[in-house]
Amino acid sequence: MGTAPGEFEIIRDFFASAPVGEGVALGIGDDCALLQAPASGQLATSMDTLVAGRHFPADADPAAIAARALRVNLSDLAAMNARPLWFTLALTLPDSDAVWLRKFADGLLQTAAQFGVSLVGGDTTAGPLSITIQVIGHTESPLRRDRAGPGDHVYVSGPLGAAAAALPVVLGEQRVNADVQLQCERAFYYPEPQFPVAAAIAELASAALDISDGLLADLGHICESSGVSADIHLERLAVSPLAQTLAAEKAMALATGGGDDYQLCFTVPQQRVADLDQLGLKVTAIGTLIEGSTGVRCWHNGNPWSPAVTGYQHF
Ligand code: ADP
Ligand code: MG
After folding, report:
1. Which atom of ligand 1 is nearest to 91's Cα?
2. Residue ranges lining ligand 1, Cβ < 6 Å
3. Distance from the CA of 133 to the CA of which of 33, 235, 248, 310 falls in 20 to 30 A?
4. CB 289 within 8 A of CB 228
5. What's the predicted TM-score (pTM) here?
6. Distance in angstroms (rounded) separating the CA atoms of residues 60 and 57
7. How far apart are CA 117 and CA 133, in angstroms?
8. Measured in angstroms, how far is the CA atom of residue 79 from the centroid of ligand 1?
9. How do residues 23-58 score in pLDDT, each as one tens digit?
């Protein structure tokens, strides 16, 4: 293998060796992959693009970029309570660099093995560094955004704010010690898709999504899709210790407005709350849904609270 493999060598040497997983009748190498859909339930599919300079620094560790690209896609499957099956990869590279590609492919296929999802195809082009992954999963019991109702309780699956607090460190704008640096890289590049929580709440929750744009923005999406509003009490919210360490006075703003944590936000009807409590999950109840179109209203120790940041939008 040379140091600047051509397009077909890239596919052959780095990606075509991906292990063939469950339901793959024909994998990488033909015009299409052939996939066997499970006999019942539904397929769930989603796609996310990561662009260098916008979603990650261009000189970041290729294995970490790959992990993040796949994990954020897997998080969408988790948010729908779908089991991951397959994914495709559209890779745009500024140049052909065998060392970079080896690290990227190893990180990608290691993450794929960890979550039981197999690479079944893709596209390889030259251009500014960008990674698009499409995932396909299967669900018998999907969690949607549009089934919440007034009176439902609102939950978050874990602490928020770590990834947003980590961003300036990851971008090299804030210097920290080696231990904190590592925590930041983990928070930003290795978000944990919340499959176990999703599976546990699938029969109880009225709505769910993963928090990619910020709690207030994403809860706003549930409200809009379901035609309800929300009152949330921020003193109940679990704020990440990393956010508290890195940005003490801004920690609440990051936990409510910063994205990229990929925890779940979900709602449970009042009459199922006792069943949820029985599961003993480490989730936090942060408020309730109400009728009307006031959107998401925040309270802090009984006082109205206004967000400083309202979630990320590209345009
Ligand atoms: P075509 O010209 O028919 O579109 P390509 O030459 O683009 O096919 O790709 C050849 C095969 O390699 C296809 O099976 C395609 O899905 C796969 N492939 C191309 N790029 C990638 C990639 N980055 N990762 C995984 N599979 C890829
Ligand atoms: Mg073709």
Report:
1. 23
2. 11, 15, 28-31, 89, 91, 119, 121-124
3. 310
4. yes
5. 0.95
6. 5
7. 12
8. 28
9. 999 999 999 999 999 999 999 999 999 999 999 999
